[in-house]
Write a structure and sequence with these properties.
The chain has 13 helices and eight strands. With about 400 residues, it is α+β, with helices and mostly antiparallel strands. The strands form two sheets. The protein has a four-stranded mixed β-sheet. The chain has a four-stranded antiparallel β-sheet with strand order 2-3-7-6, with no helix packed on it. A hairpin with a 5-residue loop joins strand 6 and strand 7. Helix 5 packs across helix 7 and helix 10 packs antiparallel against helix 11. The structure holds flavin-adenine dinucleotide (FAD). The site of flavin-adenine dinucleotide has 23 residues, from strand 1, helix 12 and helix 13.
Length: about 400
């Protein structure tokens, strides 16, 4: 077996690395770190100008038709360099969804602006009482002629404060099983009646609570049929899951390796010569390699025209949980100094380990929690019976 991604991917990775040398400045990285807003308009536009926002798209969209291995290389490079791509990746995911389920008008209006780095779309699925069980959404949309009137509240609407649209799950029918009464909309964020409240998470990331009070949305911005929103959301979810998050972890381990080479232990020798330090770094590297292979397995399935359902869940589960385990192990290895924050004197690896440990927790929650991924693997991969009511609703 050859686990390398191939010459084409290696060449593309090099091209992206050169692009990042030029466009991903320290200021761009630090702005995202300091504000918790993991998006930068200038960097997004530079990505679009270089064609990377449409790297996987067909030529008719001006795309580069990169294969899944090249896309994995792109994502690795962005993660390795801590590029602020949360906003662009969600926007591109919704553009891909619209390509499959949007109206010709939506495709003509939204997709080019997304691919050109001109608009941002955020996700409005979660609510205070429906996160994992997204089908229990209570935010309602009521028809009024050619318009819909939306009332409700969304939780964790990340980047709503920068976004042009929220891709929103609403309830349009109260008389049918919960997942059959949902409809998706692209709600313009400048519509009257929207209020945004910031939420600062322990991972340092800013997200939002958003409130919708008699927000009027034209029927033209409904995505998919009325009451068929669950199917639309499932299309979006296939674009969300599948990738590995291992790049962030690889970056962290490299930083700690550098620290271990440059700093001396009490015996006057570099820490990298300490067997216990070597053992921990070796263990972290092994986990990173295993996680990268799970990510490649998903890419391989995409390459063969299949969708990585269970394999995507395995990749997400493993990479997020091992990222957290690696962070905890490295903080433990660094001792009391391991919890010094970025900007504090004497913080090893400039405090990125402490930051990563807080951030890693969040990766086990968003995009579907670890328990939800385990449920998918158990049922769809191992054929075990469904046990929870909310699972039945989510998966039926
Ligand atoms: C930083 C951050 C950013 C986010 N950004 C967005 C965003 O932009 N848009 C958006 O819509 N959402 C976003 N989310 C929301 C995220 O998708 C939800 O937090 C997640 O789906 C879990 O939902 P919940 O928080 O309501 O927890 P709950 O669903 O209430 O879960 C609570 C606990 O119960 C467990 N649990 C729930 N159901 C089951 C089950 N069936 N089997 C076993 N265990 C179960 C969960 O694993 C968890 O441990 C974000 C979350 C965070 C933390």
């Amino acid at each position: 077996m050859d686990f390398r991604m191939g010459e084409k991917s290696d060449e593309f990775a090099k091209e992206v690395a050169d692009f990042l040398d030029e466009h991903l400045t320290e200021e761009v990285v630090m702005e995202a770190h300091e504000t918790g807003t993991v998006h930068n308009w200038g960097f997004y536009k530079a990505m679009a100008d270089a064609g990377y926002t449409r790297a996987a798209w067909p030529k008719e969209f001006g795309g580069q038709e990169r294969d899944p291995f090249e896309m994995a290389a792109l994502s690795d490079q962005l993660n390795l360099r801590h590029a602020p791509t949360d906003g662009s990746s969600v926007t591109l995911m919704i553009c891909s969804t619209l390509r499959h389920v949007g109206t010709p008008e939506q495709q003509a209006d939204i997709i080019p602006r997304g691919l050109n780095g001109e608009i941002l779309i955020c996700l409005g699925y979660s609510e205070p009482d429906s996160g994992s069980d997204a089908a229990a959404a209570a935010t309602r949309a009521d028809r009024d002629g050619d318009e819909w009137v939306i009332n409700g509240q969304k939780m964790f609407t990340t980047l709503a404060h920068e976004a042009d649209y929220v891709f929103m799950l609403t309830r349009t029918n109260h008389d049918v099983p919960k997942h059959k009464g949902l409809t998706m909309f692209l709600v313009p964020m400048d519509a009257e009646g929207i209020e945004i409240q910031p939420v600062h998470t322990m991972g340092g990331e800013r997200t939002n609570i958003t409130f919708y009070n008699d927000v009027k949305v034209p029927d033209a911005l409904r995505v998919g049929d009325v009451d068929a929103g669950w199917g639309v959301m499932r299309v979006a979810l296939t674009f969300e899951r599948g990738g590995s998050m291992m790049g962030q972890s690889v970056r962290l381990v490299r930083l700690v390796e550098e620290w271990a080479k440059e700093n001396l232990a009490p015996n006057g020798r570099p820490w990298i010569e300490d067997p216990l330090v070597r053992e921990r770094l070796a263990r972290a590297n092994m986990l990173n390699n295993a996680g990268a292979l799970l990510g490649l397995r998903s890419a391989d399935l995409f390459n063969r025209g299949e969708l990585p359902g269970v394999e995507g869940s395995m990749s997400k589960l493993f990479s997020s949980e091992k990222f957290l385990a690696i962070c905890e192990d490295l903080v433990d290895m660094l001792g009391p100094e391991g919890v010094l924050q970025h900007g504090e004197d004497d913080a090893p690896s400039a405090g990125w380990v402490e930051h990563a440990m807080r951030h890693a927790v969040v990766t086990t929650i968003y995009g579907g929690t670890s328990e939800i991924q385990r449920g998918i693997i158990a049922e769809h991969g191992l054929g075990l019976p469904r046990t929870r009511k909310s699972d039945r609703a989510r998966n039926s």
